[in-house]
Records
---
Amino acid sequence: MQDQRRSFLKKTLGASAVVATVGVSAIASDTGAKTAGSNGVVKGKSKKKEILYKKTANWDAYYHAAV
Protein backbone atom coordinates (compact mmCIF):
# COMPACT_ATOMS: atom_id res chain seq x y z
CA MET A 1 0.00 0.00 0.00
CA GLN A 2 2.79 2.45 0.95
CA ASP A 3 4.76 1.63 -2.20
CA GLN A 4 1.75 2.43 -4.36
CA ARG A 5 1.30 5.82 -2.69
CA ARG A 6 4.97 6.65 -3.01
CA SER A 7 5.13 5.69 -6.67
CA PHE A 8 1.97 7.73 -7.36
CA LEU A 9 3.48 10.79 -5.66
CA LYS A 10 6.76 10.39 -7.53
CA LYS A 11 4.95 10.22 -10.87
CA THR A 12 2.67 13.16 -10.04
CA LEU A 13 5.47 15.41 -8.83
CA GLY A 14 7.64 14.51 -11.79
CA ALA A 15 4.91 15.31 -14.29
CA SER A 16 4.06 18.63 -12.62
CA ALA A 17 7.73 19.64 -12.64
CA VAL A 18 7.94 18.95 -16.37
CA VAL A 19 4.79 20.97 -17.06
CA ALA A 20 6.07 23.88 -14.96
CA THR A 21 9.42 23.87 -16.76
CA VAL A 22 7.76 23.90 -20.17
CA GLY A 23 5.47 26.75 -19.12
CA VAL A 24 8.28 28.89 -17.76
CA SER A 25 10.45 28.37 -20.84
CA ALA A 26 7.54 29.26 -23.12
CA ILE A 27 6.94 32.51 -21.24
CA ALA A 28 10.63 33.38 -21.24
CA SER A 29 10.98 32.82 -24.96
CA ASP A 30 7.89 34.92 -25.67
CA THR A 31 9.08 37.96 -23.70
CA GLY A 32 12.52 37.77 -25.27
CA ALA A 33 11.08 38.03 -28.76
CA LYS A 34 9.34 41.33 -28.03
CA THR A 35 12.43 43.14 -26.78
CA ALA A 36 15.11 41.48 -28.89
CA GLY A 37 16.00 44.27 -31.30
CA SER A 38 14.49 47.27 -29.56
CA ASN A 39 16.98 47.84 -26.73
CA GLY A 40 14.43 46.91 -24.07
CA VAL A 41 11.67 49.15 -25.42
CA VAL A 42 8.40 47.42 -26.24
CA LYS A 43 6.27 49.08 -28.90
CA GLY A 44 2.54 48.78 -28.50
CA LYS A 45 -0.18 48.57 -31.12
CA SER A 46 -2.39 51.33 -29.69
CA LYS A 47 -3.67 53.91 -32.14
CA LYS A 48 -4.10 56.53 -29.42
CA LYS A 49 -1.65 59.41 -29.37
CA GLU A 50 0.32 59.60 -26.14
CA ILE A 51 0.26 63.05 -24.57
CA LEU A 52 2.92 63.47 -21.93
CA TYR A 53 2.55 67.18 -21.23
CA LYS A 54 -0.19 69.71 -21.81
CA LYS A 55 0.48 73.29 -20.80
CA THR A 56 -2.02 74.41 -18.17
CA ALA A 57 -2.08 76.97 -15.36
CA ASN A 58 -1.59 74.21 -12.78
CA TRP A 59 1.55 72.93 -14.52
CA ASP A 60 2.92 76.49 -14.74
CA ALA A 61 2.36 76.98 -11.01
CA TYR A 62 4.02 73.63 -10.28
CA TYR A 63 7.10 74.39 -12.36
CA HIS A 64 7.47 77.90 -10.93
CA ALA A 65 7.26 76.51 -7.38
CA ALA A 66 9.82 73.81 -8.18
CA VAL A 67 12.41 76.27 -9.51
Note: The mean pLDDT is 77.
---
Amino acid sequence: MAYFLVINGTYLTLTVFAITHIRQRTELESYEPAGILQSNQFLPGIAIVVPAYNEEKVIVDSVTSLLSLEYPFYEVIVVNDGSTDGTVGRLVSEFELERIDADYPVELPCEPVDRIYRAPDTDLVLIDKANGGKADALNAGLFFTQKPLFCAIDADSLIERGALQAIVEPFLTKPTATVATGGTVRIANGVSFEKGAPADVALSRSRLVRFQAVEYLRAFFLGRTGLSRIRSLIIISGAFGLFDAETVREIGGYDTDSITEDMELVVRLHRHLIDADQEYEVTFLPHPVVWTEVPESLSVLSRQRRRWFRGLLDTLVKHRDAIGRPSYGLVGLVALPLFVFVEGIGRLVEALGYVLVPLLFVIGALDVWFFIAFLFVSVGLGAILSTVAIFGEVLTYRRYDDPKDVAVLLGYALLESFSYRPWRALVSCQATFEYLLGDKSWGKMTRTGFEEPTDSSD
Protein backbone atom coordinates (compact mmCIF):
# COMPACT_ATOMS: atom_id res chain seq x y z
CA MET A 1 0.00 0.00 0.00
CA ALA A 2 2.83 2.41 0.87
CA TYR A 3 4.49 1.78 -2.49
CA PHE A 4 1.21 2.25 -4.33
CA LEU A 5 0.71 5.58 -2.56
CA VAL A 6 4.20 6.72 -3.53
CA ILE A 7 3.69 5.73 -7.18
CA ASN A 8 0.27 7.36 -7.51
CA GLY A 9 1.47 10.39 -5.57
CA THR A 10 4.26 10.78 -8.11
CA TYR A 11 1.78 10.53 -10.98
CA LEU A 12 -0.50 13.10 -9.34
CA THR A 13 2.43 15.50 -8.90
CA LEU A 14 3.41 15.13 -12.55
CA THR A 15 -0.22 15.68 -13.51
CA VAL A 16 -0.29 19.04 -11.71
CA PHE A 17 2.86 20.15 -13.52
CA ALA A 18 1.49 18.86 -16.83
CA ILE A 19 -1.83 20.70 -16.51
CA THR A 20 -0.03 23.95 -15.69
CA HIS A 21 2.30 23.55 -18.65
CA ILE A 22 -0.46 22.64 -21.11
CA ARG A 23 -2.54 25.62 -20.02
CA GLN A 24 0.38 27.93 -20.68
CA ARG A 25 1.13 26.28 -24.03
CA THR A 26 -2.50 26.55 -25.12
CA GLU A 27 -2.61 30.26 -24.31
CA LEU A 28 0.70 30.84 -26.13
CA GLU A 29 -0.40 28.94 -29.25
CA SER A 30 -3.64 30.93 -29.44
CA TYR A 31 -1.65 34.16 -29.90
CA GLU A 32 0.80 32.95 -32.54
CA PRO A 33 0.33 34.78 -35.88
CA ALA A 34 -0.90 32.44 -38.58
CA GLY A 35 1.68 31.62 -41.24
CA ILE A 36 4.66 33.01 -39.35
CA LEU A 37 6.70 29.85 -39.79
CA GLN A 38 5.92 29.44 -43.48
CA SER A 39 7.34 32.89 -44.20
CA ASN A 40 10.49 32.47 -42.15
CA GLN A 41 13.41 31.91 -44.52
CA PHE A 42 15.79 31.27 -41.63
CA LEU A 43 14.19 28.04 -40.44
CA PRO A 44 16.76 25.27 -39.91
CA GLY A 45 16.80 22.42 -42.39
CA ILE A 46 15.51 19.08 -41.13
CA ALA A 47 16.31 15.54 -42.23
CA ILE A 48 13.50 13.07 -41.49
CA VAL A 49 15.12 9.67 -40.99
CA VAL A 50 12.82 6.67 -41.44
CA PRO A 51 14.29 3.24 -40.60
CA ALA A 52 12.32 0.54 -42.43
CA TYR A 53 12.38 -3.23 -42.08
CA ASN A 54 9.67 -5.20 -43.93
CA GLU A 55 7.29 -2.23 -44.03
CA GLU A 56 5.85 -2.66 -47.53
CA LYS A 57 2.25 -2.35 -46.26
CA VAL A 58 2.72 1.11 -44.76
CA ILE A 59 5.88 2.62 -46.27
CA VAL A 60 4.27 4.34 -49.27
CA ASP A 61 1.57 5.99 -47.13
CA SER A 62 4.19 7.06 -44.62
CA VAL A 63 6.52 8.62 -47.21
CA THR A 64 3.61 10.25 -49.05
CA SER A 65 2.59 11.88 -45.80
CA LEU A 66 6.13 13.05 -45.09
CA LEU A 67 6.51 14.63 -48.53
CA SER A 68 3.39 16.76 -47.94
CA LEU A 69 4.46 18.30 -44.63
CA GLU A 70 4.11 22.05 -44.16
CA TYR A 71 7.76 22.97 -43.75
CA PRO A 72 9.98 24.75 -46.28
CA PHE A 73 13.38 23.05 -45.82
CA TYR A 74 13.52 19.32 -45.23
CA GLU A 75 14.50 16.03 -46.80
CA VAL A 76 13.20 12.50 -46.23
CA ILE A 77 15.78 9.74 -45.82
CA VAL A 78 14.35 6.22 -45.80
CA VAL A 79 16.86 3.63 -44.60
CA ASN A 80 15.93 0.14 -45.71
CA ASP A 81 17.47 -2.14 -43.08
CA GLY A 82 17.81 -5.33 -45.08
CA SER A 83 14.10 -5.90 -45.68
CA THR A 84 13.14 -9.28 -47.11
CA ASP A 85 9.78 -8.11 -48.49
CA GLY A 86 8.93 -5.58 -51.20
CA THR A 87 9.76 -2.40 -49.26
CA VAL A 88 12.49 -1.24 -51.66
CA GLY A 89 10.58 -2.20 -54.78
CA ARG A 90 7.47 -0.32 -53.71
CA LEU A 91 9.46 2.83 -52.94
CA VAL A 92 11.46 2.73 -56.18
CA SER A 93 8.32 2.17 -58.26
CA GLU A 94 5.99 4.60 -56.47
CA PHE A 95 8.42 7.54 -56.31
CA GLU A 96 10.45 6.78 -59.47
CA LEU A 97 13.70 6.63 -57.54
CA GLU A 98 16.98 6.67 -59.44
CA ARG A 99 20.09 4.88 -58.26
CA ILE A 100 23.13 7.04 -57.47
CA ASP A 101 26.12 5.33 -59.10
CA ALA A 102 28.83 7.57 -57.64
CA ASP A 103 30.29 6.69 -54.24
CA TYR A 104 29.04 8.83 -51.41
CA PRO A 105 31.97 10.87 -49.99
CA VAL A 106 31.27 10.01 -46.33
CA GLU A 107 31.79 6.55 -44.88
CA LEU A 108 28.62 5.76 -42.93
CA PRO A 109 29.10 4.06 -39.51
CA CYS A 110 26.63 1.27 -40.15
CA GLU A 111 26.29 -2.13 -41.79
CA PRO A 112 27.38 -2.14 -45.48
CA VAL A 113 25.34 0.06 -47.82
CA ASP A 114 24.26 -1.70 -51.00
CA ARG A 115 22.62 1.11 -52.96
CA ILE A 116 21.54 4.72 -52.57
CA TYR A 117 18.56 6.07 -54.51
CA ARG A 118 17.29 9.60 -54.96
CA ALA A 119 14.00 10.95 -56.30
CA PRO A 120 14.38 13.27 -59.32
CA ASP A 121 11.77 15.84 -58.29
CA THR A 122 11.54 15.62 -54.49
CA ASP A 123 13.93 15.63 -51.54
CA LEU A 124 13.62 11.88 -51.01
CA VAL A 125 16.59 9.56 -50.49
CA LEU A 126 16.56 5.78 -50.03
CA ILE A 127 19.56 4.09 -48.42
CA ASP A 128 19.47 0.33 -48.99
CA LYS A 129 21.76 -1.42 -46.50
CA ALA A 130 22.36 -4.73 -44.82
CA ASN A 131 20.35 -5.51 -41.72
CA GLY A 132 21.81 -4.08 -38.54
CA GLY A 133 18.79 -3.13 -36.45
CA LYS A 134 16.87 0.07 -35.97
CA ALA A 135 19.68 1.98 -34.22
CA ASP A 136 22.11 1.08 -37.02
CA ALA A 137 19.61 2.30 -39.63
CA LEU A 138 19.10 5.58 -37.76
CA ASN A 139 22.86 6.09 -37.65
CA ALA A 140 23.04 5.65 -41.42
CA GLY A 141 20.56 8.49 -41.94
CA LEU A 142 22.07 10.65 -39.20
CA PHE A 143 25.60 10.53 -40.62
CA PHE A 144 24.37 10.78 -44.22
CA THR A 145 22.49 14.06 -43.87
CA GLN A 146 23.98 17.54 -43.89
CA LYS A 147 20.91 19.16 -42.34
CA PRO A 148 21.45 20.74 -38.89
CA LEU A 149 18.45 18.92 -37.38
CA PHE A 150 17.18 15.40 -37.83
CA CYS A 151 13.79 13.96 -37.02
CA ALA A 152 13.61 10.27 -36.15
CA ILE A 153 10.29 8.55 -36.84
CA ASP A 154 9.02 5.00 -37.31
CA ALA A 155 8.10 3.70 -40.76
CA ASP A 156 4.59 2.87 -39.54
CA SER A 157 3.97 6.48 -38.53
CA LEU A 158 2.30 9.48 -40.16
CA ILE A 159 3.23 13.01 -39.04
CA GLU A 160 0.46 15.61 -39.12
CA ARG A 161 1.17 18.22 -41.77
CA GLY A 162 1.81 21.09 -39.36
CA ALA A 163 3.64 19.03 -36.75
CA LEU A 164 7.13 19.72 -38.06
CA GLN A 165 6.54 23.46 -37.76
CA ALA A 166 5.36 23.02 -34.18
CA ILE A 167 8.10 20.69 -32.96
CA VAL A 168 10.90 22.93 -34.27
CA GLU A 169 9.76 25.87 -32.13
CA PRO A 170 12.19 25.30 -29.20
CA PHE A 171 15.09 25.34 -31.69
CA LEU A 172 13.92 28.82 -32.75
CA THR A 173 13.18 30.31 -29.34
CA LYS A 174 16.28 28.82 -27.67
CA PRO A 175 18.58 27.90 -30.56
CA THR A 176 21.80 27.62 -28.55
CA ALA A 177 20.30 25.54 -25.73
CA THR A 178 17.80 23.15 -27.32
CA VAL A 179 19.21 19.77 -28.30
CA ALA A 180 16.08 17.63 -28.52
CA THR A 181 12.29 17.91 -28.59
CA GLY A 182 9.60 15.25 -28.62
CA GLY A 183 6.01 15.22 -29.83
CA THR A 184 2.86 13.29 -29.01
CA VAL A 185 2.21 9.82 -30.40
CA ARG A 186 -1.44 9.06 -31.24
CA ILE A 187 -2.96 5.74 -32.25
CA ALA A 188 -3.75 5.35 -35.96
CA ASN A 189 -5.86 2.19 -35.64
CA GLY A 190 -9.45 3.15 -36.47
CA VAL A 191 -8.41 6.45 -38.05
CA SER A 192 -8.91 6.84 -41.80
CA PHE A 193 -6.23 8.62 -43.82
CA GLU A 194 -6.36 10.36 -47.16
CA LYS A 195 -3.12 11.08 -49.03
CA GLY A 196 -1.13 10.55 -45.85
CA ALA A 197 -3.21 12.85 -43.64
CA PRO A 198 -5.85 11.90 -41.02
CA ALA A 199 -9.29 12.35 -42.59
CA ASP A 200 -11.55 10.94 -39.87
CA VAL A 201 -10.29 10.45 -36.31
CA ALA A 202 -12.21 7.74 -34.49
CA LEU A 203 -11.55 5.03 -31.93
CA SER A 204 -10.73 1.54 -33.11
CA ARG A 205 -13.31 -1.17 -32.46
CA SER A 206 -10.60 -3.33 -30.91
CA ARG A 207 -10.84 -3.46 -27.12
CA LEU A 208 -7.09 -3.88 -26.84
CA VAL A 209 -6.46 -0.77 -28.95
CA ARG A 210 -8.89 1.22 -26.80
CA PHE A 211 -6.97 0.32 -23.67
CA GLN A 212 -3.80 1.51 -25.40
CA ALA A 213 -5.52 4.74 -26.42
CA VAL A 214 -6.18 5.55 -22.75
CA GLU A 215 -2.62 4.57 -21.87
CA TYR A 216 -1.09 6.76 -24.59
CA LEU A 217 -3.18 9.77 -23.57
CA ARG A 218 -2.05 9.41 -19.97
CA ALA A 219 1.59 8.76 -20.84
CA PHE A 220 2.05 11.64 -23.28
CA PHE A 221 -0.52 14.21 -22.20
CA LEU A 222 0.37 13.96 -18.50
CA GLY A 223 3.52 11.93 -17.96
CA ARG A 224 5.95 13.36 -20.48
CA THR A 225 4.53 16.85 -20.27
CA GLY A 226 5.02 16.79 -16.50
CA LEU A 227 8.56 15.42 -16.76
CA SER A 228 9.45 18.07 -19.32
CA ARG A 229 8.07 20.75 -17.02
CA ILE A 230 10.45 19.73 -14.21
CA ARG A 231 13.39 19.31 -16.65
CA SER A 232 13.52 15.56 -16.10
CA LEU A 233 12.55 14.21 -19.52
CA ILE A 234 14.74 11.22 -20.38
CA ILE A 235 12.51 9.59 -23.03
CA ILE A 236 11.70 10.98 -26.46
CA SER A 237 9.66 8.47 -28.44
CA GLY A 238 11.39 6.84 -31.38
CA ALA A 239 8.17 7.47 -33.31
CA PHE A 240 8.65 11.26 -33.27
CA GLY A 241 11.67 13.18 -32.01
CA LEU A 242 13.73 16.12 -33.30
CA PHE A 243 17.44 16.40 -32.46
CA ASP A 244 20.45 18.59 -33.07
CA ALA A 245 22.35 16.40 -35.54
CA GLU A 246 25.88 17.52 -34.65
CA THR A 247 25.35 16.98 -30.92
CA VAL A 248 24.08 13.45 -31.49
CA ARG A 249 27.00 12.72 -33.81
CA GLU A 250 29.38 13.97 -31.09
CA ILE A 251 28.26 11.12 -28.79
CA GLY A 252 28.52 8.53 -31.55
CA GLY A 253 24.89 8.36 -32.56
CA TYR A 254 22.54 5.62 -31.43
CA ASP A 255 23.73 2.65 -29.38
CA THR A 256 23.35 -0.39 -31.63
CA ASP A 257 23.54 -2.68 -28.59
CA SER A 258 20.40 -1.17 -27.04
CA ILE A 259 16.87 -2.45 -27.69
CA THR A 260 15.30 0.86 -26.63
CA GLU A 261 17.72 3.12 -28.46
CA ASP A 262 15.47 6.17 -28.08
CA MET A 263 15.61 6.27 -24.26
CA GLU A 264 19.30 5.33 -24.10
CA LEU A 265 20.22 8.12 -26.52
CA VAL A 266 18.43 10.81 -24.51
CA VAL A 267 19.99 9.66 -21.23
CA ARG A 268 23.42 9.70 -22.87
CA LEU A 269 22.75 13.17 -24.27
CA HIS A 270 21.92 14.44 -20.78
CA ARG A 271 25.10 12.96 -19.33
CA HIS A 272 27.32 14.23 -22.15
CA LEU A 273 26.06 17.81 -21.89
CA ILE A 274 26.16 17.86 -18.10
CA ASP A 275 29.73 16.50 -18.11
CA ALA A 276 30.64 19.24 -20.61
CA ASP A 277 29.04 21.84 -18.31
CA GLN A 278 26.91 23.02 -21.21
CA GLU A 279 23.55 24.71 -20.83
CA TYR A 280 20.92 22.72 -22.71
CA GLU A 281 17.24 21.80 -22.88
CA VAL A 282 15.37 18.60 -23.73
CA THR A 283 11.67 19.33 -24.07
CA PHE A 284 8.33 17.73 -24.88
CA LEU A 285 5.55 19.50 -26.78
CA PRO A 286 2.01 18.06 -26.57
CA HIS A 287 0.70 19.76 -29.73
CA PRO A 288 2.84 18.18 -32.53
CA VAL A 289 1.30 14.80 -33.33
CA VAL A 290 2.41 11.67 -35.12
CA TRP A 291 0.00 8.79 -35.78
CA THR A 292 1.26 5.24 -35.40
CA GLU A 293 -0.18 1.76 -35.69
CA VAL A 294 -0.33 -0.25 -32.44
CA PRO A 295 -0.74 -4.00 -31.89
CA GLU A 296 -4.23 -5.44 -32.12
CA SER A 297 -3.37 -8.89 -30.77
CA LEU A 298 -2.38 -9.71 -27.21
CA SER A 299 0.63 -11.77 -28.28
CA VAL A 300 2.13 -8.97 -30.40
CA LEU A 301 1.43 -6.37 -27.71
CA SER A 302 3.06 -8.61 -25.12
CA ARG A 303 6.22 -8.89 -27.24
CA GLN A 304 6.31 -5.13 -27.69
CA ARG A 305 5.84 -4.32 -24.00
CA ARG A 306 8.33 -6.94 -22.85
CA ARG A 307 10.90 -5.41 -25.19
CA TRP A 308 10.15 -1.93 -23.86
CA PHE A 309 10.54 -3.07 -20.27
CA ARG A 310 13.75 -4.99 -20.99
CA GLY A 311 15.06 -1.87 -22.69
CA LEU A 312 14.14 0.25 -19.67
CA LEU A 313 16.06 -2.09 -17.37
CA ASP A 314 18.99 -2.22 -19.78
CA THR A 315 19.26 1.58 -19.98
CA LEU A 316 19.01 2.00 -16.21
CA VAL A 317 21.72 -0.60 -15.67
CA LYS A 318 24.01 0.97 -18.30
CA HIS A 319 23.68 4.38 -16.64
CA ARG A 320 23.46 3.19 -13.03
CA ASP A 321 26.48 5.25 -12.03
CA ALA A 322 24.46 8.43 -12.67
CA ILE A 323 21.50 7.41 -10.48
CA GLY A 324 21.31 9.54 -7.34
CA ARG A 325 24.42 11.58 -8.15
CA PRO A 326 24.02 15.31 -7.37
CA SER A 327 26.53 16.18 -10.10
CA TYR A 328 23.90 15.15 -12.66
CA GLY A 329 21.33 17.54 -11.24
CA LEU A 330 17.65 16.74 -11.79
CA VAL A 331 18.52 13.89 -14.14
CA GLY A 332 20.53 12.10 -11.47
CA LEU A 333 18.40 13.06 -8.46
CA VAL A 334 14.88 12.98 -9.94
CA ALA A 335 14.50 11.50 -13.43
CA LEU A 336 16.59 8.34 -13.15
CA PRO A 337 15.49 7.46 -9.57
CA LEU A 338 11.86 8.02 -10.62
CA PHE A 339 12.22 5.53 -13.46
CA VAL A 340 13.99 3.05 -11.20
CA PHE A 341 11.47 3.09 -8.36
CA VAL A 342 8.24 3.92 -10.23
CA GLU A 343 8.54 2.54 -13.76
CA GLY A 344 10.96 -0.27 -12.92
CA ILE A 345 10.57 -1.68 -9.42
CA GLY A 346 7.10 -0.15 -9.13
CA ARG A 347 5.72 -2.39 -11.89
CA LEU A 348 7.03 -5.48 -10.10
CA VAL A 349 5.61 -4.40 -6.74
CA GLU A 350 2.31 -3.64 -8.46
CA ALA A 351 2.24 -7.14 -9.95
CA LEU A 352 2.99 -8.64 -6.54
CA GLY A 353 0.13 -6.64 -5.04
CA TYR A 354 -2.34 -7.83 -7.69
CA VAL A 355 -1.49 -11.44 -6.83
CA LEU A 356 -0.97 -11.35 -3.05
CA VAL A 357 -3.65 -8.94 -1.84
CA PRO A 358 -6.67 -10.82 -3.31
CA LEU A 359 -5.12 -14.14 -2.26
CA LEU A 360 -4.59 -13.01 1.34
CA PHE A 361 -8.12 -11.60 1.42
CA VAL A 362 -9.63 -14.88 0.23
CA ILE A 363 -7.83 -16.95 2.88
CA GLY A 364 -8.79 -14.46 5.58
CA ALA A 365 -5.27 -13.22 6.30
CA LEU A 366 -6.02 -9.65 5.25
CA ASP A 367 -8.14 -7.04 6.98
CA VAL A 368 -11.22 -6.11 4.95
CA TRP A 369 -10.56 -2.38 5.32
CA PHE A 370 -7.04 -2.77 4.01
CA PHE A 371 -8.45 -4.62 1.01
CA ILE A 372 -10.90 -1.78 0.36
CA ALA A 373 -8.09 0.77 0.65
CA PHE A 374 -6.00 -1.23 -1.80
CA LEU A 375 -8.85 -1.26 -4.32
CA PHE A 376 -9.33 2.49 -3.89
CA VAL A 377 -5.67 3.24 -4.57
CA SER A 378 -5.17 0.81 -7.44
CA VAL A 379 -8.49 1.46 -9.17
CA GLY A 380 -9.66 4.89 -8.07
CA LEU A 381 -6.50 6.93 -8.50
CA GLY A 382 -5.59 5.20 -11.75
CA ALA A 383 -9.03 5.98 -13.17
CA ILE A 384 -8.79 9.59 -11.97
CA LEU A 385 -5.46 10.12 -13.73
CA SER A 386 -6.77 8.62 -16.96
CA THR A 387 -9.95 10.71 -16.73
CA VAL A 388 -7.91 13.89 -16.27
CA ALA A 389 -5.87 13.00 -19.37
CA ILE A 390 -9.00 12.33 -21.44
CA PHE A 391 -10.76 15.54 -20.40
CA GLY A 392 -7.53 17.46 -20.92
CA GLU A 393 -7.41 16.18 -24.49
CA VAL A 394 -11.07 17.10 -25.04
CA LEU A 395 -10.64 20.63 -23.68
CA THR A 396 -7.44 21.42 -25.58
CA TYR A 397 -6.43 19.57 -28.75
CA ARG A 398 -9.69 17.66 -29.40
CA ARG A 399 -8.38 14.92 -31.67
CA TYR A 400 -11.28 12.80 -30.38
CA ASP A 401 -14.26 15.10 -30.97
CA ASP A 402 -17.07 12.51 -31.06
CA PRO A 403 -18.85 12.42 -27.64
CA LYS A 404 -19.35 8.66 -28.06
CA ASP A 405 -15.60 8.12 -28.40
CA VAL A 406 -14.96 10.23 -25.30
CA ALA A 407 -17.54 8.22 -23.34
CA VAL A 408 -15.93 4.97 -24.46
CA LEU A 409 -12.50 6.22 -23.39
CA LEU A 410 -13.83 7.13 -19.95
CA GLY A 411 -15.30 3.64 -19.62
CA TYR A 412 -12.02 2.02 -20.55
CA ALA A 413 -10.20 4.31 -18.11
CA LEU A 414 -12.14 2.56 -15.34
CA LEU A 415 -11.97 -0.95 -16.82
CA GLU A 416 -8.21 -0.91 -17.35
CA SER A 417 -7.56 -1.06 -13.60
CA PHE A 418 -9.31 -4.43 -13.46
CA SER A 419 -7.74 -5.96 -16.56
CA TYR A 420 -5.18 -4.09 -18.65
CA ARG A 421 -3.00 -2.69 -15.87
CA PRO A 422 -2.69 -6.02 -13.99
CA TRP A 423 -1.85 -7.75 -17.27
CA ARG A 424 0.77 -5.10 -18.06
CA ALA A 425 2.34 -5.52 -14.60
CA LEU A 426 2.56 -9.29 -15.02
CA VAL A 427 4.13 -8.83 -18.46
CA SER A 428 6.77 -6.63 -16.78
CA CYS A 429 7.62 -9.53 -14.48
CA GLN A 430 8.05 -11.81 -17.48
CA ALA A 431 10.25 -9.19 -19.15
CA THR A 432 12.42 -8.98 -16.03
CA PHE A 433 13.13 -12.71 -16.18
CA GLU A 434 13.89 -12.41 -19.90
CA TYR A 435 16.31 -9.55 -19.22
CA LEU A 436 18.09 -11.54 -16.51
CA LEU A 437 18.46 -14.39 -19.02
CA GLY A 438 20.05 -12.01 -21.55
CA ASP A 439 17.14 -11.81 -24.02
CA LYS A 440 17.61 -8.85 -26.41
CA SER A 441 15.16 -9.91 -29.12
CA TRP A 442 12.78 -7.42 -30.76
CA GLY A 443 9.95 -9.71 -31.77
CA LYS A 444 7.79 -9.34 -34.87
CA MET A 445 5.26 -6.53 -35.28
CA THR A 446 2.31 -7.32 -37.57
CA ARG A 447 1.20 -4.41 -39.79
CA THR A 448 -2.25 -4.03 -41.33
CA GLY A 449 -1.65 -0.71 -43.09
CA PHE A 450 -3.42 2.62 -42.79
CA GLU A 451 -7.12 2.82 -43.53
CA GLU A 452 -8.43 4.89 -46.44
CA PRO A 453 -11.79 6.70 -46.15
CA THR A 454 -14.70 4.74 -47.57
CA ASP A 455 -16.91 6.11 -50.32
CA SER A 456 -20.41 6.58 -48.92
CA SER A 457 -21.89 5.98 -52.36
CA ASP A 458 -20.68 2.37 -52.45
Note: Residues 329-362 form the longest helix (34 residues).
---
Amino acid sequence: MDVTGLIDLKLVVASLVYSSLGLVVFVIAFVLLDLLTPKVHVWKEICEKQNMALAIFLGSVAIGIALIIASAIHG
Protein backbone atom coordinates (compact mmCIF):
# COMPACT_ATOMS: atom_id res chain seq x y z
CA MET A 1 0.00 0.00 0.00
CA ASP A 2 1.27 3.44 -0.92
CA VAL A 3 1.71 5.76 2.06
CA THR A 4 1.58 8.95 -0.03
CA GLY A 5 -2.03 8.22 -0.87
CA LEU A 6 -2.99 8.26 2.79
CA ILE A 7 -1.47 11.63 3.66
CA ASP A 8 -2.30 14.63 1.54
CA LEU A 9 0.52 17.15 1.91
CA LYS A 10 -1.76 20.14 1.27
CA LEU A 11 -3.96 19.17 4.20
CA VAL A 12 -0.98 18.78 6.52
CA VAL A 13 0.42 22.18 5.52
CA ALA A 14 -3.00 23.80 5.89
CA SER A 15 -3.39 22.30 9.37
CA LEU A 16 0.02 23.60 10.42
CA VAL A 17 -0.67 27.07 9.01
CA TYR A 18 -4.08 27.34 10.67
CA SER A 19 -2.72 26.03 13.97
CA SER A 20 0.08 28.59 13.89
CA LEU A 21 -2.34 31.35 12.98
CA GLY A 22 -4.67 30.34 15.81
CA LEU A 23 -1.83 30.33 18.33
CA VAL A 24 -0.67 33.78 17.21
CA VAL A 25 -4.18 35.21 17.54
CA PHE A 26 -4.54 33.52 20.95
CA VAL A 27 -1.29 35.07 22.23
CA ILE A 28 -2.26 38.50 20.87
CA ALA A 29 -5.61 38.25 22.65
CA PHE A 30 -3.92 37.48 25.96
CA VAL A 31 -1.43 40.33 25.50
CA LEU A 32 -4.33 42.69 24.80
CA LEU A 33 -6.12 41.42 27.89
CA ASP A 34 -3.01 42.12 29.95
CA LEU A 35 -2.68 45.60 28.44
CA LEU A 36 -6.34 46.43 29.06
CA THR A 37 -6.00 45.70 32.78
CA PRO A 38 -3.10 47.97 33.82
CA LYS A 39 -3.99 47.99 37.53
CA VAL A 40 -3.85 44.21 37.81
CA HIS A 41 -0.58 42.39 37.16
CA VAL A 42 -2.16 39.18 35.96
CA TRP A 43 0.73 36.73 36.23
CA LYS A 44 1.88 38.22 39.54
CA GLU A 45 -1.63 37.82 40.96
CA ILE A 46 -1.88 34.22 39.85
CA CYS A 47 1.64 33.02 40.69
CA GLU A 48 2.63 35.00 43.77
CA LYS A 49 -0.72 35.77 45.40
CA GLN A 50 -2.39 32.49 44.36
CA ASN A 51 -5.53 34.29 43.18
CA MET A 52 -7.72 31.33 42.23
CA ALA A 53 -10.65 33.47 41.04
CA LEU A 54 -8.45 35.28 38.51
CA ALA A 55 -6.99 31.98 37.34
CA ILE A 56 -10.48 30.55 36.77
CA PHE A 57 -11.52 33.74 34.96
CA LEU A 58 -8.47 33.61 32.68
CA GLY A 59 -9.10 29.94 32.00
CA SER A 60 -12.64 30.70 30.91
CA VAL A 61 -11.40 33.58 28.76
CA ALA A 62 -8.87 31.22 27.18
CA ILE A 63 -11.57 28.67 26.37
CA GLY A 64 -13.80 31.41 24.93
CA ILE A 65 -11.02 32.82 22.74
CA ALA A 66 -10.08 29.32 21.58
CA LEU A 67 -13.69 28.56 20.62
CA ILE A 68 -13.97 31.81 18.69
CA ILE A 69 -10.70 31.20 16.84
CA ALA A 70 -11.64 27.58 16.07
CA SER A 71 -15.04 28.52 14.69
CA ALA A 72 -13.55 31.36 12.64
CA ILE A 73 -10.96 29.03 11.10
CA HIS A 74 -13.40 26.17 10.57
CA GLY A 75 -15.93 28.41 8.89
Note: The longest helix spans residues 9-36.
